[in-house]
């Protein structure tokens, strides 16, 4: 028999029903002796086999015992035709004719193991991800130190002797202080302004104030100050530190100011 089975998609407790149909051939053998008459003794003999078309209906329950194996409890009902030749024994084995009929009383219940060779294997069980310890991150580096504070703007005053533009010892000390302060940062502008008192002619005093600012600038450059940021000016007797009458020799007015800006 060639059978086609259909497994239902639902199951309970691992048991799944199925149905099927089958077609093929059925071979039935018979060895029958029947008495026709007692006196004289005559018997009917049928010793033959019949191979005919047959069909069957199938129903059952499948219990899954593995990924591909099932234990099947199966019921089959087979039906078909049968035909047997017969003869009369005791009278020279005379042919008696053909006996025909339906073979439809085959009820079969079987218990068997069914293995599906072409079935797909069950999906592998997904492993549970392993819990990882959180990785300790390295400590953050300390923040960089803040940039040094920019020095504040500052003014230095250099004093001169009367009618002189050279530096005294005290004036050189002030210039050194100014040079060190300028080199402590990066000054953007150094303004040197020369001044005089009211003694002497105004035109002469203007030239004297310019010479005093130049002397101070040269002394700063000699001590390492950037000459590119130095600007010079001379006010003569027009911007007095201490107001006096014309012709007065006032030491506070004989000066040069150094303004350092960052």
Walk me through this protein's architecture.
There is one protein chain. The protein has helices at residues 169-183, 202-222, and strands spanning 2-7, 15-37, 42-64, 69-89, 94-115, 154-159, 189-194, 230-234, 255-261. The strands form 2 sheets. Strands 1-2-3-4-5 form a 5-stranded antiparallel β-sheet, with no helix packed on it. A 4-stranded mixed β-sheet has the order 6-9-7-8. Strand 2 (15-37) and strand 3 form a beta hairpin. Helix content is 14%, strand content 45%. The mean pLDDT is 85. It is mostly beta strands.
Task: Give a quick rundown of the structure.
This protein is mainly β and 262 residues long. The protein has helices spanning 169-183, 202-222; strands at residues 2-7, 15-37, 42-64, 69-89, 94-115, 154-159, 189-194, 230-234, 255-261. Helix 1 (169-183) crosses helix 2.
